[in-house]
Amino acid sequence: MKLSESNCEACRADAPKVSDEELAQLIKMIPDWTPIVVDDIMQLERVYKFKNFKDALAFTNKLGAISEEEGHHPGILTEWGKVTVTWWSHSIKGLHKNDFIMAAKTDELLAD
């Protein structure tokens, strides 16, 4: 099953973070995303490019809508011609499979 066809599961504070092995497998499914570490927290980040602010804002609004549907919310920086999206699970201070699912769903917004 494709990541984007999965749904997020409730993530509790004691949920396990993805292992290094899981990270290596899951990142292959979202190759345009980069694992980064911010304040000792592993996150996924991708920068999307657009022709103008209007298109960037429209993408941001679509992302907000799917985030609300799934109950999982990213860091979003919307600027003229680009949107930077960062996924991580706040409750576990790291990466959960939900973050990879949402990264894949974010990528699919480009096809809409």
Key phrases:
112 residues; Gyrase A, domain 2; alpha+beta; 34% helix; 4-stranded antiparallel sheet; 3 helices
Structure description:
With 112 residues, the chain is of the alpha+beta class. It has a domain at 38-112: Gyrase A, domain 2. The chain contains three helices and four strands. The chain has helices at 20-27, 53-70, 97-108; strands at residues 34-38, 41-49, 75-79, 82-87. It has a four-stranded antiparallel beta sheet with strand order 1-2-4-3, with helices on one face. A hairpin with a 2-residue loop joins β1 (34-38) and β2 (41-49). It is globular, with a radius of gyration of 14 Å. The two termini are 20 Å apart. The mean pLDDT is 91.
Can you summarize this structure?
Helices cover 34% and strands 22% of the residues.
Structural class based on helices, strands and sheet pairing: alpha+beta
CATH superfamily name of the domain at 38-112? Transcriptional coactivator/pterin dehydratase
CATH first level of the domain at 38-112: Alpha Beta
Shape: globular
Oligomeric state of the chains present here: single chain
N/C terminus separation: 20 Å
Largest sheet: 4 strands, antiparallel
How many beta-strand runs? 4
Give the strand order of the largest sheet, numbering strands 1, 2, ... along the chain.
1-2-4-3
Which segments are poorly predicted (pLDDT under 50) over 5 or more consecutive residues? none
User: Might you state the CATH topology name of the domain at 38-112?
Assistant: Gyrase A, domain 2
